[in-house]
Specification:
Oligomer: heterodimer
Structural class of chain B: alpha/beta
Strand content of chain B: 25-35%
Helix content of chain A: 10-25%
Number of strands of chain B: 21
Number of helices of chain B: 9
Distance between the termini of chain B: 46 Å
Distance between the termini of chain A: 39 Å
Order of helices and strands of chain B: EEEHEHEEEEEEHEHEHEEEEEEHEEEHHH
Chain lengths: ~160, ~425
Protein backbone atom coordinates (compact mmCIF):
# COMPACT_ATOMS: atom_id res chain seq x y z
CA UNK A 1 0.00 0.00 0.00
CA UNK A 2 1.34 3.42 -0.93
CA UNK A 3 0.92 6.30 1.48
CA UNK A 4 -1.08 8.46 -0.93
CA UNK A 5 -3.68 5.70 -1.24
CA UNK A 6 -4.41 6.25 2.45
CA UNK A 7 -4.00 10.02 2.64
CA UNK A 8 -4.93 11.36 -0.77
CA UNK A 9 -1.75 13.45 -0.76
CA UNK A 10 1.22 12.82 -3.06
CA UNK A 11 4.72 12.95 -1.62
CA UNK A 12 7.87 14.40 -3.26
CA UNK A 13 9.07 11.02 -4.56
CA UNK A 14 5.83 10.39 -6.45
CA UNK A 15 5.74 13.86 -8.01
CA UNK A 16 7.48 14.86 -11.22
CA UNK A 17 10.70 16.76 -10.52
CA UNK A 18 11.51 19.35 -13.17
CA UNK A 19 15.00 20.83 -13.04
CA UNK A 20 15.72 24.43 -12.01
CA UNK A 21 16.21 25.31 -15.66
CA UNK A 22 12.83 23.83 -16.59
CA UNK A 23 11.09 25.66 -13.78
CA UNK A 24 12.58 28.96 -14.94
CA UNK A 25 11.15 28.29 -18.39
CA UNK A 26 7.86 27.12 -16.91
CA UNK A 27 6.64 23.53 -16.67
CA UNK A 28 3.32 21.67 -16.58
CA UNK A 29 3.33 19.47 -13.48
CA UNK A 30 0.99 16.50 -13.99
CA UNK A 31 -0.07 15.23 -10.57
CA UNK A 32 -1.72 12.19 -12.10
CA UNK A 33 0.14 8.99 -11.26
CA UNK A 34 -2.53 6.29 -11.39
CA UNK A 35 -3.51 4.23 -14.41
CA UNK A 36 -6.84 5.88 -15.26
CA UNK A 37 -8.44 5.52 -18.72
CA UNK A 38 -8.23 9.21 -19.61
CA UNK A 39 -6.24 11.27 -22.13
CA UNK A 40 -7.62 14.78 -22.90
CA UNK A 41 -4.34 16.38 -21.72
CA UNK A 42 -2.46 14.67 -24.56
CA UNK A 43 -4.81 16.16 -27.16
CA UNK A 44 -4.81 19.59 -25.51
CA UNK A 45 -1.05 20.14 -25.80
CA UNK A 46 -0.16 22.26 -28.85
CA UNK A 47 3.51 21.18 -28.83
CA UNK A 48 2.99 17.46 -28.04
CA UNK A 49 4.88 17.74 -24.77
CA UNK A 50 2.45 15.39 -22.99
CA UNK A 51 2.49 11.74 -23.95
CA UNK A 52 0.97 8.48 -22.86
CA UNK A 53 1.84 4.87 -23.80
CA UNK A 54 -1.83 3.95 -23.93
CA UNK A 55 -5.05 5.45 -22.59
CA UNK A 56 -4.55 3.80 -19.18
CA UNK A 57 -0.91 4.82 -18.70
CA UNK A 58 -0.11 7.89 -16.57
CA UNK A 59 0.79 10.94 -18.69
CA UNK A 60 4.38 12.19 -18.86
CA UNK A 61 5.55 15.74 -19.61
CA UNK A 62 8.60 16.36 -21.73
CA UNK A 63 9.84 19.47 -19.90
CA UNK A 64 12.14 20.38 -22.80
CA UNK A 65 9.12 20.68 -25.11
CA UNK A 66 6.64 22.24 -22.65
CA UNK A 67 6.04 25.94 -23.33
CA UNK A 68 3.95 26.48 -20.16
CA UNK A 69 0.97 27.68 -22.20
CA UNK A 70 -1.40 26.40 -19.43
CA UNK A 71 -3.92 24.97 -21.93
CA UNK A 72 -3.91 21.57 -20.19
CA UNK A 73 -4.76 23.08 -16.79
CA UNK A 74 -8.37 23.82 -17.69
CA UNK A 75 -8.78 20.63 -19.74
CA UNK A 76 -7.77 17.94 -17.19
CA UNK A 77 -11.01 16.36 -15.84
CA UNK A 78 -9.16 15.47 -12.62
CA UNK A 79 -8.01 19.06 -12.04
CA UNK A 80 -4.57 17.57 -11.55
CA UNK A 81 -2.37 19.76 -13.78
CA UNK A 82 -0.48 22.80 -12.52
CA UNK A 83 1.94 25.02 -14.40
CA UNK A 84 4.82 26.32 -12.34
CA UNK A 85 7.30 29.03 -13.29
CA UNK A 86 10.07 30.28 -11.01
CA UNK A 87 12.05 33.50 -11.38
CA UNK A 88 14.33 34.67 -8.59
CA UNK A 89 12.45 34.67 -5.30
CA UNK A 90 9.03 34.59 -6.97
CA UNK A 91 6.99 31.72 -8.38
CA UNK A 92 3.90 31.74 -10.58
CA UNK A 93 1.51 28.85 -10.16
CA UNK A 94 -1.36 28.30 -12.59
CA UNK A 95 -4.12 26.14 -11.15
CA UNK A 96 -7.70 25.07 -11.91
CA UNK A 97 -10.42 26.59 -9.74
CA UNK A 98 -14.12 25.63 -9.59
CA UNK A 99 -15.50 27.65 -6.70
CA UNK A 100 -17.25 30.95 -6.20
CA UNK A 101 -16.41 33.72 -5.66
CA UNK A 102 -13.86 33.87 -8.47
CA UNK A 103 -10.95 36.17 -7.55
CA UNK A 104 -9.95 39.10 -9.76
CA UNK A 105 -6.51 40.03 -11.01
CA UNK A 106 -4.76 42.02 -8.30
CA UNK A 107 -6.61 40.32 -5.41
CA UNK A 108 -4.66 38.86 -2.53
CA UNK A 109 -5.81 35.33 -1.66
CA UNK A 110 -4.54 32.61 0.67
CA UNK A 111 -2.11 30.10 -0.81
CA UNK A 112 -3.04 26.54 0.19
CA UNK A 113 -0.99 23.33 -0.08
CA UNK A 114 -2.01 19.74 -0.91
CA UNK A 115 -3.21 19.07 2.64
CA UNK A 116 -5.41 22.16 2.83
CA UNK A 117 -2.95 24.14 4.97
CA UNK A 118 -2.64 27.89 4.40
CA UNK A 119 1.00 28.57 3.59
CA UNK A 120 0.95 32.30 2.97
CA UNK A 121 -0.49 35.01 0.77
CA UNK A 122 -0.77 34.88 -3.00
CA UNK A 123 -1.30 37.62 -5.55
CA UNK A 124 -3.69 36.81 -8.40
CA UNK A 125 -1.98 37.73 -11.68
CA UNK A 126 -4.23 36.12 -14.30
CA UNK A 127 -7.79 34.75 -14.50
CA UNK A 128 -8.94 32.87 -17.62
CA UNK A 129 -12.06 30.84 -18.28
CA UNK A 130 -11.77 27.33 -19.75
CA UNK A 131 -15.32 26.06 -20.12
CA UNK A 132 -16.70 26.36 -16.61
CA UNK A 133 -13.31 25.81 -15.00
CA UNK A 134 -11.39 28.95 -14.07
CA UNK A 135 -7.67 28.87 -14.76
CA UNK A 136 -5.98 31.14 -12.25
CA UNK A 137 -2.35 32.20 -11.98
CA UNK A 138 -1.01 33.30 -8.61
CA UNK A 139 2.31 34.72 -7.56
CA UNK A 140 3.87 33.30 -4.40
CA UNK A 141 7.25 33.08 -2.72
CA UNK A 142 9.48 30.75 -4.78
CA UNK A 143 9.97 28.43 -1.80
CA UNK A 144 6.29 27.46 -2.13
CA UNK A 145 6.43 26.67 -5.85
CA UNK A 146 6.12 22.90 -5.50
CA UNK A 147 3.78 22.94 -2.49
CA UNK A 148 0.96 25.41 -3.12
CA UNK A 149 -1.83 23.86 -5.23
CA UNK A 150 -5.01 25.67 -4.25
CA UNK A 151 -6.26 29.06 -3.17
CA UNK A 152 -8.71 30.19 -0.57
CA UNK A 153 -10.73 33.24 -1.49
CA UNK A 154 -12.52 35.11 1.27
CA UNK A 155 -16.20 35.24 0.32
CA UNK B 1 -45.24 8.05 0.73
CA UNK B 2 -48.87 8.19 -0.33
CA UNK B 3 -49.90 10.63 -3.07
CA UNK B 4 -53.61 11.25 -3.72
CA UNK B 5 -54.32 8.03 -1.81
CA UNK B 6 -51.92 5.93 -3.91
CA UNK B 7 -49.30 4.19 -1.74
CA UNK B 8 -45.61 3.47 -2.49
CA UNK B 9 -45.07 6.56 -4.65
CA UNK B 10 -41.44 7.62 -5.19
CA UNK B 11 -42.13 11.21 -4.25
CA UNK B 12 -38.55 12.25 -5.01
CA UNK B 13 -39.31 12.02 -8.72
CA UNK B 14 -43.06 12.74 -8.64
CA UNK B 15 -44.05 16.17 -9.94
CA UNK B 16 -45.40 18.63 -7.38
CA UNK B 17 -48.76 20.10 -8.30
CA UNK B 18 -51.26 22.44 -6.68
CA UNK B 19 -53.92 20.53 -4.80
CA UNK B 20 -52.28 17.07 -4.57
CA UNK B 21 -52.27 15.35 -1.19
CA UNK B 22 -48.94 13.94 0.01
CA UNK B 23 -48.98 11.81 3.18
CA UNK B 24 -46.48 9.79 5.17
CA UNK B 25 -47.04 6.06 4.93
CA UNK B 26 -46.22 4.03 8.03
CA UNK B 27 -46.77 0.52 6.75
CA UNK B 28 -47.22 -1.41 3.52
CA UNK B 29 -50.04 0.30 1.67
CA UNK B 30 -52.98 -1.50 0.16
CA UNK B 31 -52.86 -1.05 -3.58
CA UNK B 32 -55.99 0.46 -5.09
CA UNK B 33 -57.34 -0.79 -8.39
CA UNK B 34 -55.68 1.12 -11.17
CA UNK B 35 -57.81 3.53 -13.10
CA UNK B 36 -56.80 4.62 -16.54
CA UNK B 37 -57.76 7.64 -18.56
CA UNK B 38 -58.41 5.85 -21.78
CA UNK B 39 -60.01 2.52 -22.43
CA UNK B 40 -59.27 0.34 -24.18
CA UNK B 41 -55.54 0.53 -23.64
CA UNK B 42 -53.39 1.99 -26.40
CA UNK B 43 -51.22 -0.32 -28.43
CA UNK B 44 -47.69 0.52 -29.66
CA UNK B 45 -45.76 -1.81 -31.94
CA UNK B 46 -41.98 -1.29 -32.32
CA UNK B 47 -38.79 -3.16 -33.19
CA UNK B 48 -36.91 -2.14 -30.07
CA UNK B 49 -38.18 -1.15 -26.62
CA UNK B 50 -35.50 0.57 -24.56
CA UNK B 51 -36.21 0.69 -20.84
CA UNK B 52 -34.31 3.50 -19.11
CA UNK B 53 -33.08 6.75 -20.66
CA UNK B 54 -29.72 7.04 -18.92
CA UNK B 55 -26.35 6.94 -20.71
CA UNK B 56 -26.76 3.26 -21.68
CA UNK B 57 -30.41 3.44 -22.74
CA UNK B 58 -30.07 6.64 -24.78
CA UNK B 59 -26.94 5.31 -26.53
CA UNK B 60 -28.76 2.04 -27.30
CA UNK B 61 -31.82 3.88 -28.65
CA UNK B 62 -29.75 6.17 -30.87
CA UNK B 63 -27.76 3.21 -32.24
CA UNK B 64 -30.86 1.10 -33.01
CA UNK B 65 -32.81 3.99 -34.53
CA UNK B 66 -29.96 5.23 -36.75
CA UNK B 67 -29.66 1.70 -38.14
CA UNK B 68 -33.30 1.73 -39.16
CA UNK B 69 -35.16 0.05 -36.29
CA UNK B 70 -38.30 1.64 -34.83
CA UNK B 71 -37.62 2.46 -31.20
CA UNK B 72 -39.63 3.33 -28.09
CA UNK B 73 -37.70 4.66 -25.08
CA UNK B 74 -39.45 4.62 -21.69
CA UNK B 75 -38.15 6.32 -18.55
CA UNK B 76 -39.78 6.92 -15.19
CA UNK B 77 -38.20 10.34 -14.76
CA UNK B 78 -39.47 13.54 -16.32
CA UNK B 79 -36.11 14.41 -17.79
CA UNK B 80 -33.86 12.08 -19.76
CA UNK B 81 -30.20 11.44 -19.01
CA UNK B 82 -30.50 9.28 -15.89
CA UNK B 83 -27.67 9.97 -13.48
CA UNK B 84 -25.88 12.15 -16.07
CA UNK B 85 -28.12 15.14 -15.28
CA UNK B 86 -26.55 15.48 -11.82
CA UNK B 87 -22.94 14.93 -12.87
CA UNK B 88 -21.54 18.46 -12.83
CA UNK B 89 -17.92 17.26 -13.02
CA UNK B 90 -15.90 16.66 -16.16
CA UNK B 91 -15.78 13.04 -17.31
CA UNK B 92 -12.64 10.99 -17.80
CA UNK B 93 -11.98 8.85 -20.83
CA UNK B 94 -11.00 9.45 -24.42
CA UNK B 95 -12.29 11.84 -27.04
CA UNK B 96 -14.81 9.27 -28.39
CA UNK B 97 -16.45 9.03 -24.96
CA UNK B 98 -16.57 12.83 -24.69
CA UNK B 99 -13.78 13.07 -22.10
CA UNK B 100 -13.50 16.47 -20.46
CA UNK B 101 -17.24 17.08 -20.98
CA UNK B 102 -19.44 17.39 -17.92
CA UNK B 103 -22.07 14.65 -17.44
CA UNK B 104 -24.91 17.15 -17.60
CA UNK B 105 -23.70 18.34 -21.01
CA UNK B 106 -23.40 14.75 -22.27
CA UNK B 107 -27.05 14.26 -21.24
CA UNK B 108 -28.01 17.31 -23.29
CA UNK B 109 -26.09 16.03 -26.35
CA UNK B 110 -27.74 12.61 -26.14
CA UNK B 111 -31.17 14.19 -25.64
CA UNK B 112 -30.71 16.35 -28.73
CA UNK B 113 -29.79 13.31 -30.81
CA UNK B 114 -32.84 11.44 -29.52
CA UNK B 115 -35.15 14.39 -30.20
CA UNK B 116 -33.75 14.73 -33.73
CA UNK B 117 -34.52 11.06 -34.37
CA UNK B 118 -37.99 11.53 -32.86
CA UNK B 119 -38.60 14.42 -35.26
CA UNK B 120 -37.87 12.06 -38.15
CA UNK B 121 -40.32 9.54 -36.59
CA UNK B 122 -37.53 7.01 -36.13
CA UNK B 123 -37.91 6.96 -32.40
CA UNK B 124 -40.46 7.78 -29.71
CA UNK B 125 -39.53 9.01 -26.26
CA UNK B 126 -41.92 8.46 -23.34
CA UNK B 127 -40.93 10.04 -20.04
CA UNK B 128 -42.75 9.97 -16.69
CA UNK B 129 -43.74 6.39 -17.53
CA UNK B 130 -43.06 3.02 -15.94
CA UNK B 131 -42.74 -0.41 -17.49
CA UNK B 132 -44.88 -2.51 -15.17
CA UNK B 133 -44.16 -5.95 -16.53
CA UNK B 134 -43.70 -8.38 -19.40
CA UNK B 135 -46.73 -10.49 -20.24
CA UNK B 136 -47.54 -13.67 -22.11
CA UNK B 137 -47.50 -13.29 -25.83
CA UNK B 138 -47.30 -15.56 -28.82
CA UNK B 139 -44.91 -13.84 -31.21
CA UNK B 140 -43.47 -10.57 -29.93
CA UNK B 141 -42.62 -9.47 -26.40
CA UNK B 142 -45.58 -7.81 -24.73
CA UNK B 143 -44.89 -5.14 -22.10
CA UNK B 144 -47.27 -3.08 -20.01
CA UNK B 145 -46.34 0.60 -19.75
CA UNK B 146 -48.09 3.17 -17.58
CA UNK B 147 -47.65 6.83 -18.48
CA UNK B 148 -48.48 9.35 -15.78
CA UNK B 149 -50.39 12.33 -17.06
CA UNK B 150 -51.24 14.88 -14.40
CA UNK B 151 -51.69 12.19 -11.76
CA UNK B 152 -53.90 10.16 -14.02
CA UNK B 153 -52.61 7.07 -15.72
CA UNK B 154 -52.60 5.96 -19.32
CA UNK B 155 -51.95 2.30 -20.00
CA UNK B 156 -50.10 1.14 -23.10
CA UNK B 157 -49.61 -2.33 -24.47
CA UNK B 158 -46.19 -2.37 -26.13
CA UNK B 159 -45.46 -5.15 -28.61
CA UNK B 160 -41.78 -5.34 -29.49
CA UNK B 161 -39.35 -7.65 -31.27
CA UNK B 162 -36.50 -6.90 -28.87
CA UNK B 163 -36.07 -5.19 -25.50
CA UNK B 164 -32.99 -3.44 -24.14
CA UNK B 165 -33.09 -3.22 -20.36
CA UNK B 166 -30.96 -0.29 -19.18
CA UNK B 167 -32.70 0.57 -15.93
CA UNK B 168 -29.56 1.28 -13.92
CA UNK B 169 -28.95 0.54 -10.27
CA UNK B 170 -30.02 1.35 -6.73
CA UNK B 171 -27.91 2.82 -3.95
CA UNK B 172 -26.77 0.57 -1.13
CA UNK B 173 -27.81 1.29 2.45
CA UNK B 174 -25.71 0.68 5.56
CA UNK B 175 -26.97 -0.90 8.77
CA UNK B 176 -26.36 1.24 11.88
CA UNK B 177 -28.50 2.66 14.70
CA UNK B 178 -30.21 5.85 13.58
CA UNK B 179 -30.01 5.14 9.85
CA UNK B 180 -33.71 5.98 9.52
CA UNK B 181 -33.33 9.55 10.85
CA UNK B 182 -34.12 12.36 8.43
CA UNK B 183 -30.73 13.66 7.30
CA UNK B 184 -29.34 10.25 6.35
CA UNK B 185 -29.11 10.27 2.55
CA UNK B 186 -27.73 8.23 -0.27
CA UNK B 187 -25.11 10.11 -2.29
CA UNK B 188 -27.34 10.02 -5.36
CA UNK B 189 -30.18 11.64 -3.42
CA UNK B 190 -27.85 14.40 -2.24
CA UNK B 191 -26.76 15.00 -5.83
CA UNK B 192 -30.38 15.16 -7.02
CA UNK B 193 -31.36 17.65 -4.32
CA UNK B 194 -28.30 19.80 -4.82
CA UNK B 195 -27.51 19.63 -8.53
CA UNK B 196 -30.95 19.05 -10.07
CA UNK B 197 -33.32 20.85 -7.70
CA UNK B 198 -30.89 23.41 -6.24
CA UNK B 199 -31.74 22.46 -2.65
CA UNK B 200 -29.11 22.39 0.10
CA UNK B 201 -29.32 18.98 1.84
CA UNK B 202 -27.72 20.30 5.05
CA UNK B 203 -25.00 22.51 6.48
CA UNK B 204 -22.42 20.03 7.75
CA UNK B 205 -21.98 16.64 6.11
CA UNK B 206 -20.25 13.42 7.05
CA UNK B 207 -19.45 11.47 3.88
CA UNK B 208 -19.32 7.68 4.24
CA UNK B 209 -17.33 5.99 1.47
CA UNK B 210 -14.24 7.14 -0.44
CA UNK B 211 -15.01 5.56 -3.80
CA UNK B 212 -15.36 7.90 -6.77
CA UNK B 213 -19.01 8.65 -5.93
CA UNK B 214 -18.20 9.64 -2.34
CA UNK B 215 -15.21 11.75 -3.36
CA UNK B 216 -17.01 13.50 -6.22
CA UNK B 217 -20.19 14.23 -4.23
CA UNK B 218 -18.12 15.54 -1.29
CA UNK B 219 -16.39 17.95 -3.69
CA UNK B 220 -19.72 19.04 -5.18
CA UNK B 221 -21.01 19.71 -1.64
CA UNK B 222 -18.03 22.03 -1.10
CA UNK B 223 -18.80 23.76 -4.40
CA UNK B 224 -22.35 24.36 -3.16
CA UNK B 225 -20.90 26.06 -0.09
CA UNK B 226 -21.67 23.19 2.29
CA UNK B 227 -19.15 22.13 4.93
CA UNK B 228 -17.88 18.54 4.62
CA UNK B 229 -16.57 17.48 8.04
CA UNK B 230 -14.63 14.52 6.67
CA UNK B 231 -14.83 11.38 4.54
CA UNK B 232 -14.66 8.00 6.27
CA UNK B 233 -13.82 4.81 4.38
CA UNK B 234 -13.98 1.32 5.91
CA UNK B 235 -11.33 -0.09 3.54
CA UNK B 236 -7.63 0.54 4.31
CA UNK B 237 -7.21 2.56 1.11
CA UNK B 238 -9.13 5.19 -0.84
CA UNK B 239 -11.16 3.38 -3.50
CA UNK B 240 -11.69 6.26 -5.93
CA UNK B 241 -9.20 8.00 -8.18
CA UNK B 242 -6.38 9.77 -6.38
CA UNK B 243 -7.02 12.96 -8.34
CA UNK B 244 -10.53 13.19 -6.82
CA UNK B 245 -9.14 12.59 -3.32
CA UNK B 246 -6.45 15.24 -3.92
CA UNK B 247 -9.13 17.81 -4.81
CA UNK B 248 -10.81 17.26 -1.43
CA UNK B 249 -7.58 17.21 0.56
CA UNK B 250 -6.38 20.55 -0.76
CA UNK B 251 -9.77 22.01 0.23
CA UNK B 252 -8.97 20.87 3.75
CA UNK B 253 -11.30 17.86 3.95
CA UNK B 254 -9.73 14.95 5.88
CA UNK B 255 -10.12 11.40 4.53
CA UNK B 256 -9.96 8.69 7.18
CA UNK B 257 -9.43 5.19 5.83
CA UNK B 258 -10.10 2.13 8.05
CA UNK B 259 -12.91 4.12 9.67
CA UNK B 260 -16.63 3.58 9.57
CA UNK B 261 -19.84 4.97 10.96
CA UNK B 262 -21.01 3.33 14.20
CA UNK B 263 -24.23 5.18 14.87
CA UNK B 264 -26.13 8.34 14.15
CA UNK B 265 -28.02 10.19 16.84
CA UNK B 266 -30.52 13.01 17.08
CA UNK B 267 -33.97 13.80 18.38
CA UNK B 268 -36.00 14.29 15.22
CA UNK B 269 -33.21 14.70 12.69
CA UNK B 270 -29.50 13.92 12.53
CA UNK B 271 -27.55 15.88 15.18
CA UNK B 272 -24.32 13.95 15.04
CA UNK B 273 -22.58 10.66 14.38
CA UNK B 274 -20.11 8.37 16.08
CA UNK B 275 -17.33 6.98 13.92
CA UNK B 276 -14.93 4.19 14.85
CA UNK B 277 -11.60 2.88 13.61
CA UNK B 278 -11.53 -0.61 12.10
CA UNK B 279 -8.76 -3.21 12.36
CA UNK B 280 -7.37 -5.27 9.49
CA UNK B 281 -10.36 -7.64 9.78
CA UNK B 282 -12.76 -4.67 9.51
CA UNK B 283 -13.75 -5.10 13.19
CA UNK B 284 -14.26 -1.94 15.28
CA UNK B 285 -11.30 -1.19 17.58
CA UNK B 286 -12.59 -0.47 21.13
CA UNK B 287 -12.15 3.05 22.49
CA UNK B 288 -11.46 4.60 19.09
CA UNK B 289 -14.92 6.16 18.85
CA UNK B 290 -15.13 9.80 17.88
CA UNK B 291 -18.17 12.04 18.09
CA UNK B 292 -18.84 14.25 15.06
CA UNK B 293 -21.36 17.07 15.03
CA UNK B 294 -23.17 17.11 11.70
CA UNK B 295 -26.70 17.39 10.33
CA UNK B 296 -26.30 15.24 7.23
CA UNK B 297 -24.92 11.77 6.63
CA UNK B 298 -24.20 10.97 3.02
CA UNK B 299 -23.83 7.27 2.19
CA UNK B 300 -21.73 6.43 -0.84
CA UNK B 301 -21.28 2.73 -0.22
CA UNK B 302 -21.90 1.24 -3.61
CA UNK B 303 -24.74 0.32 -5.91
CA UNK B 304 -26.80 -2.77 -6.71
CA UNK B 305 -27.98 -3.47 -10.28
CA UNK B 306 -31.75 -3.21 -10.81
CA UNK B 307 -32.80 -6.62 -12.05
CA UNK B 308 -36.43 -6.94 -11.02
CA UNK B 309 -37.82 -6.62 -14.53
CA UNK B 310 -35.14 -8.98 -15.89
CA UNK B 311 -36.08 -11.46 -13.21
CA UNK B 312 -39.77 -11.17 -14.11
CA UNK B 313 -38.97 -11.78 -17.79
CA UNK B 314 -37.15 -14.90 -16.63
CA UNK B 315 -33.59 -14.32 -17.82
CA UNK B 316 -30.81 -16.22 -16.04
CA UNK B 317 -29.42 -14.18 -13.15
CA UNK B 318 -26.30 -14.94 -11.11
CA UNK B 319 -24.82 -13.36 -7.99
CA UNK B 320 -21.51 -11.77 -8.94
CA UNK B 321 -19.98 -9.64 -6.15
CA UNK B 322 -17.71 -7.74 -8.58
CA UNK B 323 -20.79 -6.65 -10.56
CA UNK B 324 -22.56 -5.39 -7.44
CA UNK B 325 -25.04 -8.25 -6.86
CA UNK B 326 -27.37 -10.27 -9.05
CA UNK B 327 -26.87 -9.56 -12.75
CA UNK B 328 -28.29 -10.98 -15.94
CA UNK B 329 -25.92 -13.35 -17.71
CA UNK B 330 -25.20 -11.95 -21.15
CA UNK B 331 -22.99 -12.55 -24.17
CA UNK B 332 -20.57 -10.08 -25.78
CA UNK B 333 -23.52 -8.55 -27.69
CA UNK B 334 -25.21 -7.83 -24.33
CA UNK B 335 -27.94 -10.41 -25.12
CA UNK B 336 -29.35 -12.25 -22.09
CA UNK B 337 -30.39 -15.91 -21.88
CA UNK B 338 -33.75 -14.88 -23.37
CA UNK B 339 -33.22 -14.28 -27.08
CA UNK B 340 -34.15 -10.72 -28.00
CA UNK B 341 -33.69 -9.33 -24.48
CA UNK B 342 -30.56 -7.25 -23.97
CA UNK B 343 -28.99 -5.47 -20.99
CA UNK B 344 -26.69 -2.46 -20.84
CA UNK B 345 -25.16 -0.12 -18.28
CA UNK B 346 -25.29 -0.53 -14.51
CA UNK B 347 -28.17 -3.02 -14.81
CA UNK B 348 -25.63 -5.43 -16.33
CA UNK B 349 -22.99 -4.79 -13.65
CA UNK B 350 -21.91 -1.63 -11.81
CA UNK B 351 -19.45 0.46 -13.82
CA UNK B 352 -18.89 3.93 -15.25
CA UNK B 353 -21.06 6.08 -17.52
CA UNK B 354 -18.40 5.89 -20.26
CA UNK B 355 -18.60 2.09 -20.42
CA UNK B 356 -22.39 2.20 -20.03
CA UNK B 357 -22.61 4.28 -23.22
CA UNK B 358 -20.53 1.76 -25.18
CA UNK B 359 -22.51 -1.18 -23.79
CA UNK B 360 -25.64 0.67 -24.90
CA UNK B 361 -24.23 1.11 -28.40
CA UNK B 362 -23.35 -2.60 -28.56
CA UNK B 363 -26.84 -3.67 -27.40
CA UNK B 364 -28.52 -1.21 -29.76
CA UNK B 365 -26.45 -2.31 -32.72
CA UNK B 366 -26.81 -6.02 -31.91
CA UNK B 367 -30.59 -5.63 -31.67
CA UNK B 368 -30.66 -3.88 -35.06
CA UNK B 369 -28.53 -6.72 -36.50
CA UNK B 370 -30.88 -9.39 -35.11
CA UNK B 371 -33.74 -7.55 -36.80
CA UNK B 372 -31.85 -7.65 -40.09
CA UNK B 373 -31.51 -3.87 -40.26
CA UNK B 374 -27.72 -3.86 -40.58
CA UNK B 375 -24.78 -6.23 -40.93
CA UNK B 376 -22.07 -3.94 -39.66
CA UNK B 377 -19.97 -6.50 -37.74
CA UNK B 378 -16.93 -4.22 -38.05
CA UNK B 379 -18.65 -1.50 -36.03
CA UNK B 380 -19.66 -4.04 -33.40
CA UNK B 381 -16.06 -5.23 -33.11
CA UNK B 382 -14.91 -1.61 -32.89
CA UNK B 383 -17.23 -0.96 -29.92
CA UNK B 384 -16.05 -4.16 -28.22
CA UNK B 385 -12.42 -3.07 -28.56
CA UNK B 386 -13.25 0.38 -27.13
CA UNK B 387 -14.85 -1.31 -24.13
CA UNK B 388 -11.84 -3.57 -23.63
CA UNK B 389 -9.53 -0.57 -23.79
CA UNK B 390 -11.42 1.33 -21.08
CA UNK B 391 -11.37 -1.70 -18.79
CA UNK B 392 -7.67 -2.43 -19.33
CA UNK B 393 -6.31 -0.45 -16.36
CA UNK B 394 -6.30 -1.34 -12.64
CA UNK B 395 -9.54 0.58 -12.05
CA UNK B 396 -11.22 -1.62 -14.66
CA UNK B 397 -10.27 -4.76 -12.77
CA UNK B 398 -13.58 -5.27 -10.97
CA UNK B 399 -15.81 -5.00 -14.06
CA UNK B 400 -13.24 -7.04 -15.99
CA UNK B 401 -13.49 -9.88 -13.45
CA UNK B 402 -17.28 -9.54 -13.37
CA UNK B 403 -17.56 -9.80 -17.16
CA UNK B 404 -15.12 -12.76 -17.27
CA UNK B 405 -17.23 -14.58 -14.67
CA UNK B 406 -20.37 -13.84 -16.69
CA UNK B 407 -18.72 -15.22 -19.86
CA UNK B 408 -17.64 -18.39 -18.01
CA UNK B 409 -21.12 -18.94 -16.57
CA UNK B 410 -22.68 -18.47 -20.01
CA UNK B 411 -20.28 -21.04 -21.49
CA UNK B 412 -20.97 -23.48 -18.65
CA UNK B 413 -24.72 -23.20 -19.23
CA UNK B 414 -24.27 -23.70 -22.97
CA UNK B 415 -22.19 -26.82 -22.29
CA UNK B 416 -24.96 -28.28 -20.16
CA UNK B 417 -27.67 -27.71 -22.75
Amino acid sequence: MREYEKTGVLTKKELPSPSKKHLEKGAAILECIQEIPCNPCVDSCPVHAISMKDINAPPVTDFDKCIACTKCVGICPGLAIFVVKVKGDKAWITLPYEFIPVPKVGDTVKAVDRTGMIRGDALVTRVVKSGKTMVITIQVDSSLAMDVRHIWVKP
Amino acid sequence: MRVNGVPNVRTCIAPLKEGISVEMQDKLGELPNATFTEKPKKKITVNVLVIGAGPAGLSAAIESATHGATVLVVDENQVVGGQLVKQTHKFFGSKQERAGTRGIDIAKELEQQVLALQKKSKLRLMTDATVIGCYESTRKFRFGVVERCDYQNRLYEVLTDTAIIACGAMENMLLFPGNDLPGVYGAGAVQTLMNVYGVKPGDRVLMVGAGNVGLIVAYQLLQAGIKVDRVVEAAPTIGGYHVHAAKLRRCGVPIQTSHSIKEVYGDKTVEGAVIVELDAQWKPIPNTEEDIKCDTICLAVGLTPSTRLLSQIGVNLEFIPEAGGYVALHDDSMQTSVKGVYVAGDASGIEEASTAMIEGKIAGLAAAMTLGKTRDRKLLEHYRRELECLRAGPFGEKPRIAKQKITKLVEARHARV
